[in-house]
Amino acid sequence: MFTGLSAFPLTPVGADGVDEDRLHELVARLDRAGVDSIGVLGSTGSYAYLTRDERRRVAETAVRAAGETPVLVGIGALATADVLRCAEDAQAAGAGAVLLAPVSYQPLTDDEVYGLFAEVTVSLSVPLCVYDNPATTHVTFSDDLHARIAALPHVGSIKIPATPTDPHRARERVTRLRAHLPDHVTIGVSGDRAAAAGLIAGCEGWYSVLGGVWPRVCLALTRAARRGDSTAALDLTRRLDPVWQLFDRYGSLRVASAIAEHAGLVGSPNLPRPVTGLPADAHRRVRQVVEHLDPDVGR
């Protein structure tokens, strides 16, 4: 399940908490589109703002809605004890795999990061994806640390930050990391603007924010890159450049929220407080970009 397009939907949150009906439809829509896996409770899924009970219900709802599509469930938390509880809940819900970012208030040493993964993986019965997201967690993985963690049981993939958009530099980055990993551990690129370059460079998967709202165009990009049609993949990336510019300016979570709201997929508000959606002028800009793009892009 750690290859191809892994689409990460929002967790819609209204005044009464998680909107499980909307979440069910978001996930079912991705299943109908034919994505390779569905990732809930990642950064786009706002896991850090939800209680354990809310996270359990998100996992259960997603697994029910996903049909035969495997579901990757985020289990990151500040305390190791909470990570273990979330892992237990995710597995009980039927998750196909779990996603773990080393979240911390205090800066963590490499040994502390390794210790977290070592303690969690020993209790797992499903594969684990290592979530390398220094912009959010402020934990920077070295290739040596990735190698230590990748040797642990159940580790199946690494979700890396965006590769360079230059294809040559992207290939250098992926090749260098690949040399540190066992053959069974895949590399998945995040940072949607870099998806084509990362896939062309040898990443087996794309962990995608935009895939959570626009799965079909992201599937087309993924399929093109993985069959070696770099021209088609890069052309789709260029067509989506207005969206990447919005991501750069406003952040991918808020833009994905606005796109989903514009499409009628979620209500308003739909993000967990204190996070709020885009201001009115930015919302208008998102709507203009969406309406300007070819209609097939947004399906």
What does this structure look like?
- The chain has 299 residues and is α/β, with parallel strands linked by helices.
- The protein has one domain: TIM Barrel (Alpha-Beta Barrel), CATH 3.20.20.70.
- It contains 13 helices and ten strands.
- The strands form two sheets. Strands 1-4-5-6-7-8-9-10 form an eight-stranded parallel barrel, surrounded by five helices.
- Helix 7 (167-178) links the parallel strand 8 (155-160) and strand 9 (186-189).
- The chain is globular and about 45 Å long.
Layout of helices and strands:
Layout: E1 4-7, E2 13-14, E3 17-18, H1 20-33, E4 37-40, H2 52-65, E5 71-74, H3 80-93, E6 97-100, H4 110-121, E7 128-131, H5 134-137, H6 143-150, E8 155-160, H7 167-178, E9 186-189, H8 195-200, E10 205-208, H9 215-226, H10 230-239, H11 241-250, H12 252-262, H13 280-292
Parallel strand pairs: 1-4, 1-10, 4-5, 5-6, 6-7, 7-8, 8-9, 9-10
Antiparallel strand pairs: 2-3
Helix pairs in contact: 1-2, 2-3, 9-10, 11-12, 11-13, 12-13
